[in-house]
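step: validate -> pass
step: tokenize input -> pass
step: predict -> running
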Amino acid sequence: MARFRTRFALLGSAVALTAGVAAPVQLAGASSASAAAEYQWVALGDSYTAGVIQAAGDTFDVPRDGCERTDQSYPQVIDRDLNALFDLTNISCGAATIANVTNTAQEPIGRNLPPISVDPDYPFPAVPPQSQAVNADTDVVTVGVGGNTFGFAEILTRCQELGGESNGEGTPCKDALASGIQARLNKVSTEYDGMLAVLHERAPKAKILAVGYPTIVPNDTTTCTYGDLTKFGNITQDDLAWLRTSVLEPLNKTIEQSTTTQETAGFVDLYPSSQRHSVCDDNKWVEGFITFPDQFSLVHPNAQGHRNAADHVEEALLNTLS
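step: predict -> pass
step: emit ->
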């Protein structure tokens, strides 16, 4: 995808200062090395921000803290693009909930997902609530979170199990779980509103950009081959359609609606731009349960997905300066 033209208009002479110089990899929780950076940016969120999977790059924290931030995740991509303007603090963490961003310490799991995988460095020490990285000097906050509070991974797992039991027929997951979806959405809404209030209190002058989730399920679910673990495994095609319209799209809408409660908050919508790049598309930006041949991806964005997110979040960041 082409870069947004607004980036170049706003960078101006700052680009000249860094032309031909490779930006250093940003260490988690540390500031960018750029002496020219004028604005303080804090990136918060879950695995869709942190990167986590191998298809989203290499982890770079030394020593590891179990949050699994990767060098192709969108905060790191933007840091390399815009480090002349923004001093990044990236403390996003895989498996984070809204509460982990707001006021609850998190015990990171790294890549310890038995029986799927065992992380030799597990267990990891608890990390503090991500909001503690935000303060009165912060100019902009990006936050991508909500899926774990909603229980999306749990729903996917249950859909996979039920789809296997039904041999790919019908809507067993919808039948079992549909009645509880609104309560899950209400929980996300309440906690998201509270999180935004806390972030605004800690950083009164900061613009808060809530980053939504990309397209995961295609409009045409017949492209999702039943039993294919590089896609959605045993989840039935009809359940996938339900997941798209009654789970994922309402989750994004709930997050977007929460931003309207804060004058300083905005929403970065990744859904339209990723429409033709779902788990089941040939040019996928989100991996399925596994990445061929043997990498566990568990339905997370790959480097291309993070590049798309970076383009949209970059535009939003730059618009905060105008």
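step: describe -> The longest helix spans residues 237-259.
step: cleanup -> pass
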